[in-house]
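Give me the fold.
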Amino acid sequence: MKIFKYPFYIIWRFWFLCWVILTIVPIFPVLIIVTSSEKLYPYFFKIARAWANTILFVMGFKIDLVETQVLEKEKSFMFCPNHTSMIDIMVMLSVTKNPFVFVGKKELSKIPIFGFFYKRSCILVDRGDAKSRKAVFDEARRRLSNGLDVCIFPEGLVPEDESIILSEFKNGAFRLAIEHQIPIVPMTFYDCKKRLSYTFFSGSPGKLRVKIHEFIETEGLVLNDSNSLKKQTFDIIYNELSTDLKKQEIHT
């Protein structure tokens, strides 16, 4: 029966890519302006949120958000969601009103049109280059010092093996959070992998459940505490995903 779904999957992926790219074209001049200066970044962020919500809507996705603690506008945060799919960026933009900057992989800058603005608005990292990793750390420090929040997917990359619940976390987010004494915000994206993973013949419209967990305070922590902070964050998200997976298995 799955063979009859193949045409749907092809149309589904094409529909997604068309909306990602073509929604940017009409506002291209505006985006050029709002990405020309860091002072204009809050305006870019509002446009990016509207773009993300549009993509999610036309793809038939509906976000179901649970917030165990509400974000304060006056504080800076380090957002740490799990990384599972092609729509993680859109989901992150949709559920977070505080202006933040992504630390993302350099490869996405090669996507036509989208990549142009991605490069101008995000902190790009080439994870195979030690100099690039250090430069990213310095740039993230600067952005945090200027009052912006930062979002880092601590797994670094989406695991190729989709059976992996959660990949090992990298250190960067936790060292930065301690250095700036800002809270870590663990976030669980439950359904993104099911809805639009990197496996071509997969996906469907539906609910996208997201949970913003209680923040992990870093006040008083030192850099030697970064590994325990990383483990604490990992355990929160891993346990949440594992519990949800077991619930789904029981109901199937």
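The radius of gyration is 18 Å.
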